[in-house]
């Protein structure tokens, strides 16, 4: 057993001390690209400053024959792209390494950390099953950081894509001070759970509830009745959000594979935002704008939240605002919104302007 006082001790001689708190940086869209795909990789420099996170993907969706080219391509991009990755960069640089049972992951970690570790912010680990997977990566990263002389520890993000990973979600979040967050991996998770879907994220028209029949007659049962499609991922996301909140780390939706259906993508992202997630993945350039918009609280909501904060004075007691009761607990919800808006506005001048305009409009109408 590791004693509590050693939780924040470096796991290798010469490795940087682990962070006490995960820095709150905007990560509304984690944009995936394949560094071995020249056309896609060529778009990366132009995306710096326009997307919160660029992620060089080395795992699924990269052909086995291209694994080494992807790894080397990512090292080149990390070294050569101004403003990408590292302390204070306009856009964070993350990677998704290959799975821990694959023949590639040891070289992925060794090469990336020693050749470009100072430019990488977060390492996403797929198919995490339990704390033991995080412990393995934790120690290895410490050894590599010491070897590379890094001064800033790398953070780790786990993808939940197995039933075992879901069952162990709390211990995964608390396995290391490196833990930055979790994402839902809906395709692998569906397969592992033996769900009967064939999509990457999103709903399914067969997963629904139907209005009761008017009576028990055969005619009423056969008559058209309203049905409502349900969210297949509600339980999983809510569970993931609780585990992350308990450990002070961030939850993310993951991918939405129907690139053409921008409307359903927005709906799924918004559900995740409302339930407590801070971002989602973008697989195609057109999903970046959706994620940035959906995971930024709306200017109207922020202006309203500020009114509640002002009306609550010292933060105790109950007041009436627009016919609604506000008290200590609604104040806390409003503070979540205000703090997130301030954090995002600090890095997004266009959003800051929209917040200021909504605030001015609200003050003018008061
Ligand atoms: C879906 C695909 C095949 C459509 O690719 P396309 O070329 O057919 O699309 P397009 O609409 O024709 O592309 C328009 C332009 O955008 C470019 N482009 C297109 N995508 C990107 C991109 N991401 N980043 C930068 N540029 C991009 C593309 O090269 C093209 O450039 P051009 O106008 O100069 O010809 C392509 O977008 C793609 O490969 N995206 C990434 C897919 C990916 O990373 N998948 C893995 C994550 S999901 C997952 O792993 C599951 C999970 C979590 O593990 C689990 O649930 O279990
Ligand atoms: Mg997967």
Describe it.
With 366 residues, the protein is α/β, with parallel strands linked by helices. The chain has 2 domains: 263 residues, Phosphoenolpyruvate-binding domains (TIM Barrel, Alpha-Beta Barrel), CATH 3.20.20; 67 residues, no CATH class. Helix content is 45%, strand content 13%. The protein is built from 14 helices and 12 strands. The strands form 3 sheets. An 8-stranded parallel beta sheet has the order 9-6-5-4-3-2-1-10. Strands 7-8 form a two-stranded antiparallel sheet. Strand 4, helix 4 and strand 5 form a beta-alpha-beta unit. Helix 12 packs across helix 14. The chain is globular, with a radius of gyration of 22 Å. The termini are far apart. The model has no long low-confidence stretch (mean pLDDT 97). The site of magnesium ion (MG) has 6 residues, from helix 7.
Task: Looking at this protein, list some descriptive labels.
single chain; 366 residues; alpha/beta; TIM Barrel; 2 domains; 8-stranded parallel sheet; two-stranded antiparallel sheet; 12 strands; 45% helix; 13% strand; globular; binds Citramalyl-CoA; binds magnesium ion; CoA ester lyase; lyase activity; Pyrv/PenolPyrv_kinase-like_dom
